[in-house]
Amino acid sequence: MFQFIVRRLFQLIPVLLGVTILVFSLMHLSPGNPAHIIAGESAPESTVQQIEERLGLNDPIPVQYANFLKDVVTLDFGNSWRTSLPVSTELWPKFWVTFELAIYSTIFSIFLGLIAGIISAVRQYSVADVSIMLVALFGLSMPNFWLGLMLMQWFSINLGWLPPTGWGTPEQIIMPVFTLGTMGAAVIARMTRSSMLDVITQDYIRTARAKGLKEKVVIYRHALKNALIPVVTVVGLQFGGLLAGAVLTESVFAINGMGKLVVDRILARDFPVVQAAVLVMAVVFVFVNLIVDVSYKFLNKRIDLD
Fold first, then answer.
1. What does the pLDDT read at residue 252?
2. What's the pTM value of the predicted model, to 2 decimals?
3. Which of 75, 90, 72 lies closest to 20, judged by CA?
4. Beta strands of the chain (E only): which ranges?
5. I need a labelling partner for 174 at 20 to 30 A (CA). Which of 15, 37, 105, 191 fits?
């Protein structure tokens, strides 16, 4: 396993290098001159040229990329072009907000999705199975921002039970987590049901039942553990999606997270902040998938990672 982890860490280098090339290219190919945005529409051309010189925008593109890559290697992303504050000062507080939102939403998705999927698989074609799958289909089809607005209308405006915006208190966490985690719970429920149905028809499950084991022991100790491998894969992919796609939820609930920061800085052409944010999300996504791959060994001892 140690060799597998080391090998995957080395594979991280070309992946991150590709991410740096992609985000650098997209930002520099996008229309709009950052110097014009910083100086203002009525600023004289001399002021714009001075800003371009100060930011290094007059350098050739390969030189700009080499400087950016050097900053990445030294973990020094420079200062924001919009606020002149260090990128790390602006990025990390908002990253942890979005990271917390993604973690809580993932936990909610796993808890709700596993329970729904197990019940649906054990009671195949029953009223409970059909009802759960209909709800899961509704959860997959429903846009997150619409669900967030409806929750805000019901529980904040009409009932006054929960605060409509913000992040930090338990009351403020409930609606954003439910909004962001609903679609993930629906996907996990459908995947759990499908995987469980494949497992419970295997011979070793019939043998366990023939030995007189209780149904709960058969389902949770024998069937569920082997059915979790595809579910864990989905969870890993979803976490990266939640981390990168929380911008709509953050906008609806006025959460000052990294998604909102990235959108604002893309519009402002704040290259250092956007490039650092995308790189951080890529690193987290890769490490989450590394954890998912390692977890396969614990779920099934027969899997050889090396």
1. 84
2. 0.81
3. 72
4. none
5. 191
